[in-house]
Design brief:
The complex is a heterodimer of chains A (312) and B (281). By secondary structure, chain A is an all-alpha fold. Chain A contains 12 helices and 2 strands. In chain A, helix 3 crosses helix 7, helix 3 packs across helix 9 and helix 5 crosses helix 7. Chain B is 76% helix and 0% strand. Chain B is built from 11 helices and no strands. Chain B starts with 6 loop residues before the first helix and ends in an 8-residue tail after the last helix. Classes of the chains: A mainly alpha (312), B mainly alpha (281).
């Protein structure tokens, strides 16, 4: 025990950095290198189902670098590039729809009395803590041809034949809303709760209509929340697998599902890796922008903290 | 008037909460339906819960999921605390930029990419080092720890930033050594965040389907993997029952935890208002 304590005292600082750094290099950075490498290999029958990219054989060092897998993505663009386009389109509109509902919800929460606010926040966070797979499953029970909505409408005599809701863009958007709405609400709430009431009152006293107050004050001041929330929804939505797999049809195939099928069903690991690289290429800009935004946010927070400390 | 919200906004908000809660509510109700047909209500029954308890495959998967989640959450929390300490306490150490990039990228990495890349790494490592021999529970724990620690770090960091350094300085002035200070002062103070980080990492691990599917081996199916294979075949009352139990358990713990936190913070605010405590003088 004394030896351990001595070791911690002497090397504690280094351990604090090196343990997590080493873990993340080995289990996060290296795997990405591995995917990049595999995307240039040739598929073969065997374990693993691809030829090594480089190594040392009888004739010394060899490489098997080829661009065949990327060629396939372009050649069979119906099967690969079209789903990629689908992903961007569905994720984009999902983000907009989430924003449409999240904005009034966040405003409602931010404007409530503190005790109501606590309850509403728990109601928003609760789904976030429960399994999204199970919530999507619950949605299927609602939207199915013989599901809850259709059987209710049929019984009430409002429709004569069941409406097809599953395997449409509609079911995808419902699934995305169910999964990602809380992620949009929280950053919006965070900026709205900081809005100065006096500012809004002053504008109203000076004769601004509600629309004018919204357009000239509320909307510009909540832009950081809109951007943060949109990135939090858009980035995972593009790579989503469960939603297109369970709720989508042939018209809603997304890139995450194509990767899954190539890997598990076709066992074509090199093409699956090339699809992963394509997905990363699509998300590179939003991810870099999110990090830049995040960095600016923490810098602003720190500056604000420093300002507050100076004033006290 | 400017403080209120307008009617269209209120309706959108109500629909929004409806989308979050109606599907799950209907599912909970139908889990007590005695008919196997999901669309026909044939009377109240708990027989699906009984059948669930006799389903060995589900119970075994539940056991594996719990074991994976407990281990992954614990490892994630330890690493998450280390990352948070590094960023908040160590100033500009070497590789700060690298660590901050590596600790935030997993938060936004698509799950299919994380899963595929880790599997490829495990296979390459097996070829080179002979470890890990095959894939199973261990590889799932490693995968979950890798993204869990990044979420844990975010949670712990925010609490650590608010920490009053003068307590630690006082302890150091009185001759306490660093590890002792950490375990007897810092850790108890940041304990709520550490617990929250553990719970978050646990939930993320327990709910993960995609990454676990890639890095699990034969015979190491976790609960989401089993549920997913059943869900693909359609809606069944057994899964309604299973989902109801899981969702209600989580809901109950979140509500209880929030009530405790809310009461604590309300109590602290009241104490601060009467001048009882608080260091923000």
């Amino acid at each position: 025990m004394a030896a351990v304590r001595h070791f911690l005292t002497r090397h504690g600082r280094r351990l604090v950095v090196w343990l997590p750094l080493l873990w993340l290099v080995v289990f996060f950075a290296l795997p990405l290198v591995e995917v990049a490498q595999t995307s240039f290999t040739e598929p073969r029958r065997g374990i693993p189902p691809f030829a090594p990219l480089w190594g040392f054989g009888e004739d010394g060092f060899f490489t098997n670098f080829n661009l065949e897998n990327y060629g396939l993505l372009v050649e069979y663009s119906q099967d690969y590039l079209r789903p990629a386009g689908n992903s961007v389109r569905l994720a984009f509109f999902s983000t907009l729809i989430c924003l449409l509902f999240a904005y009034p919800m966040a405003w409602w929460i931010a404007r409530s009395s503190p005790s109501h606010r606590a309850i509403l926040l728990v109601l928003v966070m609760l789904p976030f803590w429960t399994s999204s797979l199970l919530r999507i499953y619950a949605l299927i029970g609602l939207l199915n041809t013989n599901g809850f909505i259709n059987s209710m409408l049929l019984q009430l005599g409002l429709i004569e034949a069941p409406i097809r809701m599953m395997q449409t863009d509609f079911s995808i958007y419902m699934g995305m809303l169910l999964t990602y709405l809380p992620l949009m609400i929280l950053p919006l709430y965070a900026v709205m709760i900081r809005l100065d009431d006096d500012l809004l009152d002053a504008a109203a006293d000076l004769g601004a209509s509600r629309v004018e107050v919204f357009r000239t004050i509320v909307l510009p001041l909540t832009v950081p929340g809109i951007i943060a929330g949109s990135l939090l929804v858009f980035i995972p939505a593009v790579g989503e697998f469960v939603i297109p797999a369970l709720l989508g049809g042939p018209e809603q195939v997304m890139i995450g599902k194509v990767l899954w099928t190539e890997f598990f069903r076709n066992r074509d690991w090199p093409v699956a890796s090339a699809i992963a690289m394509l997905l990363l290429a699509i998300l590179a800009l939003p991810i870099i922008y999110a990090r830049y935004q995040d960095g600016r946010e923490t810098a602003l927070d720190r500056a604000e903290d420093a300002g507050r400390g100076g004033a006290a | 008037m400017t403080r209120g919200i307008s009617w269209p906004a209120l309706w959108l908000g109500i629909i929004g909460f409806g989308i979050l809660y109606v599907p799950v509510t209907v599912m909970v109700i139908y889990s007590f339906n005695s008919s196997r047909l999901v669309s026909v209500w044939a009377g109240f029954s708990t027989k699906w819960y009984g059948e669930l308890l006799e389903n060995d495959a589900v119970l075994e998967a539940l056991g594996k999921s719990l074991w994976v989640a407990v281990n992954a959450a614990t490892l994630s929390t330890v690493f998450g605390v280390l990352i948070a300490l590094a960023f908040v306490r160590l100033g500009n150490f070497r590789f700060r930029l690298l660590l901050s990039a590596l600790a935030s990228m997993p938060l936004v990495m698509p799950e299919v990419v994380t899963g595929l890349s880790l599997l490829l790494l495990f296979i390459a490592m097996e070829g080179l080092l002979g470890w890990p021999a095959g894939r199973g529970i261990d590889t799932i724990i490693i995968a979950h720890t890798t993204f869990g620690m990044c979420f844990a770090a975010v949670v712990v960091q925010s609490r650590l930033r608010d920490f009053d350094m003068s307590i630690e300085e006082a302890a150091a002035d009185l001759g306490a050594r660093q590890p002792y200070i950490f375990f007897s002062i810092t850790l108890p103070v940041i304990a709520p965040a550490v617990i929250a980080a553990w719970l978050l990492a646990f939930t993320l691990s327990f709910d993960d389907l995609v990454i676990a599917s890639f890095v699990s081996g034969p015979g190491s199916s976790t609960l989401p993997i089993v549920v997913f294979s059943k869900v693909r075949l359609g809606v069944t009352p057994e899964i309604n029952a299973l989902a109801t139990i899981m969702i209600l358990l989580v809901a109950a713990s979140v509500v209880i935890a929030s009530a405790i936190i809310y009461r604590n913070s309300a109590g602290r605010k009241a104490a601060a208002a009467t001048g009882g405590s608080g260091h923000e003088s």
